Structure formats: structure tokens, C-alpha cells
Amino acid sequence: MTQADKRAEGLTGLAETSLGVAFLRDLEHRRADRLFADPFARLFLDAAADLGASWTNVPSGPSGPSGPVSST
């Protein structure tokens, strides 16, 4: 199996879960009132972007790092 074949298959299972966790950690890291800092979460997501990962884009605006995650 070539690298291109592996990328075409995308990521599943544990790999997607770890990217989901990194995505949430990056959201928290970008908040002004964050509870913890994780500068490596974004690097992890960037490295996985070329593998077809679905958790690589961080939104901005009211639901993203510049605003509250929840309005309730």
C-alpha cells in the first residue's frame, strides 16, 4: 500500500478520537480565559491535515476561540 492509498482511506477509530481531543484542546488553548495551555495541539492537527483528518479546522467567532463555546 502506498502513502497515497493510506491518505485516501482517511483516519478512523482511535486516530480520529485523538484528533478530536487535540481539536478541543486547541480550542481551549486559544481562549483568553483558558484553563490550560497546550501549544502542541495545533501542531498535532496541522501534521494530520494532509491525511484527510476531519478535525483540523478551528472555527473563529462566537463559537470559536475568540468567544464563548456555549452561550448558556
Task: Walk me through the structure.
This protein is mainly α and 72 residues long. The protein is built from 3 helices and no strands. Helix 2 (14-30) packs across helix 3 (39-48). The longest helix is centred in the N-terminal third of the chain and has 17 residues, at 14-30. It is elongated and about 45 Å long. The model is unreliable at 61-72 (pLDDT under 50).
Mean pLDDT level = 74
The rounded Rg comes to 14 Å
Q: Would you count the extended β strands for me?
A: 0
Count of helix runs? 3
Q: Secondary-structure element sequence?
A: HHH
Distance between the termini: 48 Å
Beta content:
under 5%
Largest sheet: none
Uncertain stretches of 5 or more adjacent residues: 61-72
Instruction: Name the helicity range.
Output: 40-55%
What coarse outline follows from CA principal-axis ratios? elongated
Pairing-aware structural class of the strands and helices? mainly alpha
Give the topology.
Elements: H1 3-9, H2 14-30, H3 39-48
Please describe the structure with a list of short key phrases separated by commas or semicolons:
72 residues; mainly alpha; disordered C terminus; 3 helices
Concise structural overview:
The chain has helices at residues 3-9, 14-30, 39-48.
